Amino acid sequence: MGRLFWKFFFASWLAMLAAGAGVGTAVWWSHQTLEQERHAQKTLDLDHHAGLFVGAAADVLQFGGEQALSQYLQQARHHPAPQVYAVDARGTDILQRAVEPQLLNQARDWYLQQDDGDEIRKVRTVEGREFLLFAVIPEFTRGRHSGPLPPIPPHWRDAPPPKRPSLWLPVISGTFASLCLSAALAWYFAKPIRSLRKAFADAAVGRLDTQVAEAMGNRHDELTDLGQDFDHMAAQLDSLISAQQRLLHDVSHELRSPLARMQAAIGLAQQQPHKIPETLERIERESQRISDLVGELLVLSRLEAGVSDGNMADTDLGGLLADIVEDVRFEAAQKQVEITYRGFDEVIVETSGELLHRAVENVLRNAVQHCKCGGEVTVNAGFDPAEGRLRIVIEDQGIGVPEADLQAIFQPFFKSPNQKKPDSVGLGLSIAYRAVEALGGNIRARNRSQGGLAVEIELRLLGAGAGG
């Protein structure tokens, strides 16, 4: 589960917990109120029953004497009724039951506190002995020990039942807390989504420099990742659109020069009819240049669109590379450039021979064009059958390329400021780069320590095998 899931989960859980806490508090509060009412009612009932038993014991003692009270209390011990104690001045119970001093002191104190009532009484017998009568209720406890029933204040007996607190207060509090948490959660998720919507709207009208990740703040979740992905996408689109605009500008510039020369040649032919044959040759050369440029642009466009110019078929790598070298040797001879080829024997692999031919031929032609007059271009090709890896290194003896431009030379119409490019279409290395990329390989350039440029092509051709 992602971070956004856990944030949403815990926020929702807290909202429900707050609402549940409010309802639970209301239920607990209601239960506590009912318990207090039951306790007060029980106290009043105990007071009533204890008063009856103490009163009855007092009447028995006063009119029947100690013997009658002993018999009455002895019989009462076997019934579920308050136990009445009759203690004389020395603290001795009439039934010789053990009475704790603390219990006796509490009874005496409560007798002094009560204004009127029958819960605790003092009775003097005919013989002149004085007894303190009080009831002990086992169910009515004060702490850990049973004690005598305390006197009930007179205002308790006639007081109305306690007023129940409103149950709506905790319910409303829990609901309010839940609403606050839900609102915070909704704002937390809605804010970055609004930022993303605005960014998409800006991108739709062409403002690709919009950055949305910074507006996300310090949060770390999938929405932040989405904002970063949007920024990356916008930057890539901006780069691609800029590249297309540069390509359109470069194509327009490349087409303008031959067209201008053709117009000039036509004007010259009109003014000097005797030079029409020479003018036609010039127009033919310029039109061929335009045709080559359009053809190369079509090839580059198809490669960038992912449309392969060749089908996968069994191809002899050794024979293919040897044929390419022989074809380019005719052009190299005109510049007095020698091509040295070190390759391998016949190897049959399943690949696109057309794409591989375009890639190697364009790199080799570029090396010949930039090599110094009377120099040498070397082609070293190696194939590893175990790994199915093809490696081709083409080196020239030209002036090289500035280190900062080694990657840029694979861009369409690139012109190094430190190098005068020969008269060419200017798309050869770009087509080679796209062709190698379509074959799943990579191509890179480096300057040689002895001077000149080295271009390395590396491909992995699985399922390769050696031929006869």
UniProtKB/TrEMBL annotation:
GO molecular function: phosphorelay sensor kinase activity
Protein EC: 2.7.13.3
Domain Histidine kinase residue range list: 250-463
Tree of life domain: Bacteria
Reaction catalyzed: ATP + protein L-histidine = ADP + protein N-phospho-L-histidine
Family matches, as Pfam families: HAMP (PF00672), HATPase_c (PF02518), HisKA (PF00512)
Listed transmembrane segments: 167-190
Compartments in which it is found: Membrane
Main location: membrane
Residue ranges annotated for the HAMP domain, each copy included: 187-242
Keywords for this protein: Kinase, Membrane, Phosphoprotein, Transferase, Transmembrane, Transmembrane helix, Two-component regulatory system
Recorded topology in the membrane: Multi-pass membrane protein
Keyword Ubl conjugation: no
Keyword Transferase carried by entry: yes
CC per GO annotation: plasma membrane
PANTHER family according to UniProt: SENSOR HISTIDINE KINASE CUSS, SENSOR HISTIDINE KINASE YKOH
Protein name: histidine kinase
Species, as recorded: Methylomonas methanica (strain DSM 25384 / MC09)
